Amino acid sequence: MIGIDTSVLVALENKSHPDHTRVVHSVRKKLKRGERFALCPQVAAEFIHVATDPLRFPAPLTMVQALARTEWWSTVEQCRWVYPDEESLELFLAWMTGFRLGRKRVLDTMLAATYAVQGVKDLATLDPADFRPFDRFDFIL
After folding, report:
1. 11 with 126: CB under 8 angstroms?
2. Cross-strand partners of 37
3. CA angle 51-123-20, nearest 5°?
4. What pLDDT, in 10s, does the model give residues 93-106?
5. How far apart are CA 107 and CA 61, in angstroms?
6. What is the C-alpha to C-alpha distance for residues 84 and 70, in angstroms, rounded to an integer?
7. For the chain, how many structural domains are there in total?
8. DSSP label at 60?
């Protein structure tokens, strides 16, 4: 199962993103092969926040568009929603402490812990350096 990071979701859904074409091609190819994806609420929330930001993109998504795209992912047969639980919270806290991470690493660390506990081994991200310290994922984009 491939965990989706916000960076990939934003590039996939925003045509003005510089990596849009490459990400669309890669995700479509994986969907056609029947590969399964994992998505979690914190990625959905961050996607909606980033994709609708006019300071980041010349043509941001509207809130209606971002919500509709998020809802679409909940209907895709090859996508399973995964959720943080007690074990992922414990791993998150251990990583934050053990790696001495600061406030700018909180969201990615919680995401990594959630995916790791759910058995996700592959991660679709445009920012692999954010997840390398955990030594848990293969990066597929």
Report:
1. yes
2. 2, 79
3. 40
4. 999 999 999 999 99
5. 22
6. 18
7. 1
8. P
Q: What one-letter code names the amino acid at 71?
A: E
Contacts of 58 (CB under 8 A, 6+ apart): 16
Say how many C-beta atoms besides its own lie within 10 A of residue 9's C-beta: 25
Among all chains, which residue has been given the structure tokens 């992912």? 73
Q: What length is written for the chain?
A: 141
Q: For the chain, give the mean pLDDT.
A: 95
Q: Supply the CATH number for residue 128's domain.
A: 3.40.50.1010
Range of the domain at 77: 2-139
Rounded to whole angstroms, what are the CA distances from 43 to 30, 81, 108? 19, 10, 10
pLDDT single digits (tens) 31-61: 899 999 999 999 999 999 999 999 998 889 9
